[in-house]
């Protein structure tokens, strides 16, 4: 569905509302063969409609030519075009109608492909929770609390119209009102919004239900009614709010981010204020690998990484072919299986549905698109990310540079380095020359070579929208559907930090004698941009403040469970430009006579690395070689920078001394270790390898030819001799610390506001704490314990 880099910067949503204007989907056709081919274009739809295919110049086409893959590098050259759809009369209201676009068969290859989208008639009056609509959900409201419904009024006529709105309430003891009763001069094809606010009576009985009817009458003679409902509950709302990649030290920094903070001088004042209303856990930890996919799920399910079943970010290793090809695939809920039988994992979403008889509405939002897609595969009702946003909500906007949010007071600070800063092999040979020779997209190649990554990210908001956009889409869903169990993960800090680094370690920086952080330099790497990280954190704190204010305005703050957390920290990696060695596991093992694909398989990179080996003797040799590998660090002297964890240690645990511990079974997947050939499954590593002392382990090309990497990026068929590593990274024992603030419902006897608990806490302790407070039975997948208090 379209192109991020060359076009509007995002892919068009699958479902679009038809209000009289043609619906448009931008599309991309890719020929994966070796020679040019011609493909026919066609469509099918169960409802009569007119479809036109248009090329980049706006000319109508019925077929297109697709060039074959480039020689040697096998890069595709997509052909971009668009489809315009105009449904015929009688399109049923509130019933999405599928439209399937077909490419092919190819004249030479016979290959064909399809994309299915949806057209929806919203009618004159539309609500997401219309009792006769696509999600007829009754909002769950505690006595005395507020809920809202949003109504979208569309002009389906050829001329401007005026629309009058009226409300009928089924329960006079509920306070209910519309924020507007008349819409003047609504243009053809345009939509306006109205909000119904309802307040449950203080003494309302649990289970009491009320229906509201909103009526719209246009002066063109069209009249429609929509019914919505609310129901009284005694179950508090649950809100997880995560800042991806945030170290807990940021909570104690001053406004400039260069030293300790004090009253009135905090980097994150809204979070500091929330600390007075919650319990702080300064010694909270996530599980290894300290990374995205596994730890957000661990927070939701109360599990160890080994129990929940994912071990890498974005994708996983399914196996290897006899031709030494690596088989990778995206991560999925289908891989989240535990116990000897491989039972499906239960998160708080599944438990909430069971405990409320299906009445709890669940939502997950993250501008890490792949993460939201994984978590949204099952049970979750509302999924929000950079390319999944509410109907009638504007698409993500382009922004000048990641690291310069709209609240930034110094957007002129230095931009990030180019993507070539991540390459440890010859960038001229591996990027520039192949691009000039037509081996892959010239714009992409030159962009990787010279364009700041932060600018690249801002050009493609569909790949990663700004935190503020994601949060605004969450607010729209809250105003529209009032979800009961919510997980919000804003991820600019992580997405940008992989290229500009972290800023929490105040001892790492040369401050140049100036009071601010704009010109500070890291002793580890020339690519670090200290101020970018701090700007993102200031914006994230503003967003969190807006989040709390919204809960208070809706009257749900006091009764809600609120968890503030992160999934891991971030550290700056030692770079060759500062005289440090980049570790290459393949080269280390090759120097001892062990050859990739003959003696072992290897995957991952930067801080999360894996080894597979079927020969126990060789596996033992590999472990010893890597554990005893020594580098002469310019500051520390001789150090052994690699921690290697074998299957027995995954099962029994490891004491890492001052760097913490690996808990028994934290990295041990009982199901996947004993079912390596399970259809649709994946291969659990024989060894996990984590670096210490901020050393970077070089990844190889296949980590960029798939999306199995910390930013979910894929650059096509990158040769495996390319070495790459992110300037800022996480995954190992040094990035397991997390901020954790916990607020129970008002009046709960434990977890007193404003207290600090120094006992160690774990990310897997969050879900069982919520279950305990709500009186819900914890499923048997839970490894954590209720948080200490």
Task: Write up this protein.
The chain has 789 residues and is an alpha+beta fold. The chain has 4 domains: 15-120, Immunoglobulin-like (Sandwich); 125-232, Immunoglobulins (Immunoglobulin-like, Sandwich), CATH 2.60.40.10; 238-309 and 345-417 and 452-573 and 735-774, Alkaline Phosphatase, subunit A (3-Layer(aba) Sandwich); 576-725, no CATH class. The chain is built from 17 helices and 47 strands. It has an 8-stranded mixed β-sheet with strand order 27-26-28-19-31-45-20-46, sandwiched between helices. A 5-stranded mixed β-sheet has the order 1-9-8-3-6, with no helix packed on it. A 5-stranded mixed β-sheet has the order 11-18-17-13-15, with no helix packed on it. A hairpin with a 5-residue loop joins strand 22 (315-320) and strand 23. The two termini are 50 Å apart. The mean pLDDT is 93.
Count, helices: 17
- CATH homology-level superfamily of the largest domain: Alkaline Phosphatase, subunit A
Counted beta strands: 47
CATH architecture of the largest domain: 3-Layer(aba) Sandwich
Provide the helix percentage: 10-25%
Question: How much is the average pLDDT?
Answer: 93
CATH class of the largest domain: Alpha Beta
**Which range does the strand content fall in?**
25-35%
